[in-house]
Amino acid sequence: MDITTMLFALALGNLSLAAALFFYEYERGKSLSWSTWAIAKQCQAVAWLLLYFNASGVLPDAVAVPAGYAVLFAGVGLEAGALWEAAGRLAWRRVAYPVIGLSVALFLVCYVIDEAGMRVVAGALILGGLHLAGAAALVRGWRGGSMLHRFLVIAMTLLALLVAARGILVLTMPGGWGWLSKGLLQVLTSGALYLLMLLNGFGFLLLAREQQRHELDRLALVDPLTDLPNRRSFFAALAPWMALARRPGQPSALVMLDFDQFRRVNDSYGHPAGDTVLRSVADVCKRQLRDSDQLGRLVGVEFALLLPRAGLDEALLVAERIRAAVEASPVKTERAMISMTASFGVTVIRPDDSMVSLFKRADEALRAAKQGGRNKVVAAPTGDAPGGEASGEETPPV
Q1: Where are the annotated segments for Disordered (predicted)?
Q2: CA atoms of 208 and 29, how far apart (whole Å)
Q3: Are 200 and 156 in contact (CB under 8 A)?
Q4: Which of 10-24, 53-67, 215-229, 360-374 has the lowest mean pLDDT?
């Protein structure tokens, strides 16, 4: 395959990937990362078409080469940025745009100085460097990645180095290596770019697949509205602390809380306002906690709080602090400023507790807080009756 045919294949390949991505975006919801990648592929397709028309004699060097390489650098730089964005680095534009601008300026300077030699060196080194930047985004998932993921990282790195090596060879050995003629060197470089185009496409789709998998795994453990652990995740976090409670040492505490009369918010202002209130109040609660504390949403407006290595008195203070913060933090919605209060039931984990007995005791304390007028903190009884049932007088509300 000669160089002209290879340039045309590169243009068609990028156009095909851009078209395939359009339908992928449509099904997925048009995430920003995928749109960036589609623009990158379109830029590369335009660039290769310009260079193809130049190689075919349709466009002169003075028009096609500077414009083609400028658009090509922009496309490859955007593609690297899209890979970084898909990998979770959303601030890639702060680096990518200046790098693309400098690359274009450097190539134009080299083109003016020496049309035949320096532009080849600069173009190869810049393209190789930008492709390496894209491959670096895939390196972040190396440790937990699949064999395909690791293969893509290695292949993209080697091919990017091959593209950059063309510039080094031309710079150090303008005549090539005997059998490695200039024409063969161009074909090898173009072939490497063609494979890079395909591998970048696979790499991007691989990142998309891994993102979707991680998001599904996260949603299985996290409440999507408040971004707190859900019931399943909270119980999993609680289990080891219940096991530790059977050993001598400082106890841990469980707090159950429920937002008072939350139904009136949904009835009066609508469910979107209710969601806003719930998210805001959950954030208020999180700001009152230590890093080791665990707040989870069990169901509806009922939440549970695990306080590792906290006794009853300390847990009561934490619950009171959260209660006061919720009461003092009205939530602004589109229709009104809504004030909320919360009721709390507090207990410590006992050596003989099961999940059922622990939550039953905390729930009874929460119910007592509700019946006592709401916006209260009530501790569960501390005594043990025969058979493990709580006995004794109820601890007064805080």
Answers
A1: 370-398
A2: 13
A3: yes
A4: 10-24
pLDDT given at position 378: 93
Cα–Cα–Cα angle for 377, 383, 387, rounded to 5 degrees: 120
| Single-letter amino acid code for the residue at 46 | V
Tokens in use for 194? Answer: 């063609």
**Direct distance between the N- and C-terminal alpha carbons of the chain, in angstroms, rounded to an integer:** 83
CB atoms < 10 A from the CB of 337, how many? 8
> 302-307 and 294-299: which strand pairing?
antiparallel
User: 282: which 2 tokens?
Assistant: 């959950």
Burial of 262 (0-12, 13-18, 19+ CB in 10 A): buried
Q: Is 354 exposed, middle or buried (0-12, 13-18, 19+ CB in 10 A)?
A: exposed
* pTM greater than the 0.70 cutoff: no
The tokens describing 299, both together, are 């169901």
Question: Among residues 203, 197, 200, which one has the least CA distance to residue 7?
Answer: 197
In single-letter form, the type of residue at position 322 comes to: I
Comparing 85 with 369, which gets the higher pLDDT?
369
- CATH class given for the domain over 3-219: mainly alpha
Tokens standing for residue 168: 């080094």
Distances (CA, A) of 83 to 25, 36, 92, 133: 15, 9, 9, 9
- CA-CA distances (angstroms) from residue 131 to 88, 155, 166, 241? 18, 11, 14, 48
* Radius of gyration, alpha carbons of the chain: 31
| Cα distances (angstroms) measured from residue 255 to each of 169, 236, 288, 307 | 69, 16, 14, 8
Sequence ranges of the domains in the chain: 3-219, 231-391
The alpha carbon of 165 is separated from its chain's Cα centroid by a whole number of angstroms, namely 34
* Residue 254, token pair as written in the block: 């469980």
Distances (CA, A) of 362 to 241, 254, 256, 293: 16, 7, 6, 17
- Give the range among 26-35, 281-290, 315-324, 367-376 with minimum mean pLDDT: 26-35
What contacts 207, CB < 8 A, 6 or more positions away?
A: 83, 86, 87, 137, 138, 141
Separation CA 170–CA 174 (nearest Å)? 5
- In this chain, the answer to whether the domains covering 3-219 and 231-391 adopt an identical fold is no
C-alpha to C-alpha distance for 111 and 109, rounded to whole angstroms:
5
Alpha-carbon gap, residue 149 to 153, rounded angstroms: 6
